[in-house]
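pinning this so it doesn't scroll away 📌
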Amino acid sequence: MQKIFGITLMSVALFSCGSYLLYKAKPSHKKQSRVTVDLDGACDENSYLTYGSSLLPNKPYIEKTEDLAANRDQDFLVVKKNQRLHDILSIYDISVHEIMALTKALSPYVRAKDLGVGDLYKVKLKNDRPGSLECFTIKKLDPNRLPITYEAKAVEVGFSVSLSSPKTELEDAYIRLKVKETLFASFKALPYGNELMQRLMNVFAWRMRMPEQVNKNDEIELVVTKIFALGEFIGYGPIKSVIYKKPQQTSQAFYYSSTDGKVNGYFDESGRSLEKEMMLSPVKNTTATSNQELRLHPVIKSRIRHNGIDFRGTIGTDFFAIADGEIIEKRFDKNVGNMIRIRHKKGVHSEYFHADSLVNKLDVGDFVRRGQKIGEIGRTGRLCTGPHLHLGLYVMHGEKRKYIDFKSLRKKLADMPMLSGAHAKEFQELTKKSLSFIQAEREKGEPTLAING
């Protein structure tokens, strides 16, 4: 009986397996997917680094070799899912040697694995040499959603790569919202609202615990710079002014950069600085993309603690020392790339990883000032998956580093000085103009982007 039962069970398993294989072998009659990337904010927060510029909305994937042949030297084509540079060029009978030369030329700007679904490309072959490239062009969004064109032209040996991007246009916008549920829910209704929320939280970070101290019915008014490229909204610049109204209190903040270049930052209406001696971000006008937390590391595929904050940025973007201090380490590390460590007051240290370059004239033992440029954002090091800056904060326990966060420094750090003299006078003129702009927008009735969370 046991033998009969075993044979029956095996027969059922084989039949099920065979049916599955036959099902998978059937030709698919699904319609071709289409790639659409909306630059006005419809693309989701986790996908904008992957999706390309897609200047050809709703363009279908081109699946067949004959379709490719018909489009040679004409239109841009769209990168498909799991399609890599080698896959694209092999269809054109480009040699492995030439693909490797192109990959090497592009590598400082776009690595082969950086091509993502929705990126655009164009292949131009030499008329007198079939299967040989004259020019290869890629269009994709940089981390700040600015469309960049990378053009690789064949030269005597290898390829020469040039970059171009459209001019950006700036516009001051007035935004008013009333919190009905949570701060996150309220800002989520705005295009790229999470980024704007982060910037608001940074304005009041040393004075207010956000979002914990945000309450229902709080009212927020913002004046912020909006950035446009090719007529499309691609993100926010700095917040210029904020009025935050609670039932028992109104807080104001104004961004001020002195004409002599000696002072910049956020101040309240009386000229009192809202910042501490340590800056919250080493990069201007950016967004944190990863915090201090346990996470699945994208390279080593293990769940480990991320001891720092990652800041989004394009290769070559300046980054700055977050506070006065002495450089104690500056070198290249195979895992974290070009890195620099600085010792500050009260035993606090900061570290900066994955730099494209570090300022040459700076060396170990040199003293740097708060806000002084120390390098440029890159993607160096084995553990780096894309352009960004990693910032870590730590104190030493013997010979070991104990990583900390900014919250633990709230009461330890000194406030930046209050404005005085010519700076105070210049600041008051700025606040008058800003408040006049806000009042004029209020009188228009419905604000530019009014939402109710």
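📌 and the second one:
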Amino acid sequence: MEKHAVRHPTGPAKLKQLRRTLIRGVFFVELNMSVILICYYGVMKISITDLRKKVLATFADKGFNEADASRIADVLLWADMSGVTPMGIAKMVGSEPVQNEKATAPVEIVRDTKLSRLINAHHAPAPLICQQAVDVVIQKAKDHSFGLVGVNNTFCSSAALAYYVDRIAQEDLIGIALTRSAGSVAPFGSADPLFGTNPIAFAFPTNEEPILFDMATSPMTWTGLILAKSRGEKIPEGMAIDGEGNPTTDPAEAIKGAMFPFDHGYKGSGLGMVVEIMAGPLAASAYCDYKTYDKDYGNLFMAIDPELLVDVKDFKAQCSDMTQVIKASRKQKGVDEIRLPGERARAAYKEAQKTGMVEVDEIVLKELGYL
């Protein structure tokens, strides 16, 4: 791994006063509105094949069978290959390592109809049960044009929701996924972390690759906070408050306090609440867990057949045309390319497939014993 440092004439004492930010492994400082690269920090390229073997070995050591370990690895490596590193093997470290989650009882179907299913995971790893939930929701939508599957009683992150909705859209269905987790985000005007990071994702089939949109309703992921703390980094100003409600750039204090919604306003807060409801009470899961932090996470998946309203071929063609119209629209000054949601991640994934290499955080690799 290459590391580069830049000396500044004001010296180390002055640098300590500068605001520092880490963006995808590149360490920057801001000085009089200009940005100076300090070092390339903490990102390594590793063979995808080798990384997968190491991940599978870790799960095998924890007692997982090969099939279940492989399905979990699919989710995590997809995220790393797509450049969404906080959703990748970073989920194997920190406060809720996915490989440490073990089912306390067989996965239970609590309620089942031709359109829906409610699954009690009984502590099984969320990425594994969410894979199974997507299998079910796709089949129900293929059989009856619509599917709705809720998952409760998981206690770790489901990882990248885009992975699951992409699977749904690859079947010519519209995919929607929502997840709630332990409290880390304060609603608008509140100082208590009532909501989780609460991501929501959509996928739409086209004549090319599906359109993907995946966003957290928080400004960064919980794993991102954990990694920032591990690296001794600061987080951007205006992102979080400490346990006393004071603004902070210290991720350790933000963990004790709360992040704001992604837009710092009532719209982001409202969207976070919608996710909290749909992946909480609607999935028979917890909600507003910020005092004991021992409640379960909830997930909700939907699959919709466009044929309910229109011919699927027409729908896909029009979605493809829409992307072309957006891409061909006039660019603002200083903009080189108009990007669609998920486009950068898709390009990163294809590049990883082509080269057989993937970028992973060095700290994560060290913590997992892969170095």
